[in-house]
Design a protein that fits this description.
Elements: E1 4-5, H1 16-27, H2 38-58, E2 65-68, H3 71-86, E3 92-96, H4 101-112, E4 116-120, H5 130-136, E5 141-145, H6 159-169, E6 174-178, H7 190-193, E7 197-201, E8 212-216, H8 242-253, H9 257-276, E9 281-283, E10 293-298, H10 303-312, E11 315-316, H11 330-334, H12 339-342, E12 345-349, H13 356-372
Length: 376
């Protein structure tokens, strides 16, 4: 049976060049980058080479890039590191009601600790309204953390507009954006977004799982969440996962954003046209969404039921964020969807490897499911 993998927002297939680099750094150039001998120096060159590749892609300085174990750690480090560094300046934090769980759950915990956490809901367009965020900023606001691209619906938020307006109102506020679903798929330049902190992840762009990075603007101070050696300038201690970091650097160097985006944009347009011809399909992704993600609902059929039916046909999609492990989506709840619509939602997410044949296989399997699966 031919496999049609359409779950690339959960993870992507590691590129051959990226996998080869990881193998090389496990078997050949395997020394600790902190070791002072020649092998350690060679490993350190690989580490800094990867840092340079990530920095170049972000339009940042190498000194502003800190490697982490992935997007979740980068988000936790950004949010908690910023809050702890600035807690004497105030206690208000502004975020959204449809952040990735690594930010959303962190914010819920900070609220329990007594912080004044403001959760902005998406508007009727499915995106965050910049004015609402800016209006919530006051003299005690220390951090704004809003994702660039939503991981379930693909909604793109006006980060630059938010940052400019917020800093005009309170120049000391820090702005963090989770750019995990945006990096490598659209231009992500912290300087253009006016972001002080920005999180990215490797396994969304054909690098291995277990590696990511946090951009920290020069002059911005955040506090570490772990303690130990002097790696990553003591902000993220512990021996660096060099095979993963090196592979991340290679994946970054392989990015061709314009070409890939043209490919997936045509696929998304094609798929929407095909889905529109089916009965009981509702598109959930807003117009202002990334071409890489399409969220839709199949009326009357639970997400899990349809997901397993599609998998039996060799078509692999998601019912939402992989981190939720099938749990109820707080993202779709924040959008105000009724339970029936939210509980029947599916997420298709593309990569440069997808084809028209993948879309056709999905539509064919959906047609079969709509006709034969039991309705609630």
């Amino acid at each position: 049976m031919t496999e049609h993998y359409l779950d690339n927002s959960a993870t992507t297939q590691v590129s051959e060049a990226s996998a080869k680099k990881a193998f090389e750094l496990m078997r050949t150039n395997y020394a600790n980058p902190s070791s002072l001998h020649s092998m350690g120096f060679a490993a350190s060159k690989e580490l800094e080479g990867a840092r340079s590749q990530v920095a170049k892609a972000l339009g940042a300085d190498v000194s502003e890039i800190y490697f982490t174990s992935g997007g979740t750690e980068a988000n936790n480090l950004a949010v908690l590191g910023a809050v702890n560094a600035k807690k004497r300046a105030g206690n208000r934090i502004i975020t959204t009601a449809f952040e990735h769980s690594s930010v959303y759950e962190t914010m819920l915990n900070l609220a329990k600790e007594g912080y004044d956490v403001v959760f902005i809901k998406p508007d009727s367009s499915g995106c965050i309204n910049a004015k609402e965020v800016i209006d919530a900023v006051d003299s005690k606001t220390i951090l704004i953390s809003i994702m660039h691209t939503n991981n379930e619906t693909g909604a793109i938020n006006p980060i630059r507009e938010i940052a400019v307006g917020a800093k005009r109102k309170n120049p000391s506020v820090l702005v963090h954006t989770d750019a995990v679903q945006a990096f490598g798929k659209t231009e992500v330049k912290p300087s253009k977004l006016f972001a002080d902190l920005l999180s990215i992840s490797g396994h969304k762009i054909h690098a291995p799982k277990g590696v990511g990075a946090l951009y920290v603007k020069k002059g911005v101070r955040i506090l570490p969440r772990s303690f130990g050696g002097k790696q990553e300038k003591k902000l993220r201690t512990g021996t660096e996962a060099l095979p993963l970091i090196g592979a991340f650097g290679v994946a970054v160097s392989e990015l061709d954003i314009q070409k890939n985006t043209e490919t997936v944009k045509s696929l998304k347009t094609y798929l929407i046209d095909k889905l529109s011809a089916l009965a009981d399909i509702t598109i959930n992704s807003p117009e202002a969404s990334t071409p890489y993600i399409l969220n839709f609902s199949v009326k009357g059929i639970r997400s899990e039921t349809m997901l397993h039916h599609l998998a039996s046909k060799g078509v692999y999609v998601s019912s939402g964020s992989a981190c939720s492990k099938g749990g109820k989506s707080h993202v779709l709840s924040a959008l105000g969807f009724e339970d029936n619509r939210a509980d029947s939602a599916l997420r298709v997410s593309f990569s440069k490897h997808n084809t028209i044949e993948d879309c056709d296989a999905l539509v064919c399997a959906l047609e079969d499911g709509i006709e034969n699966l039991a309705r609630r």
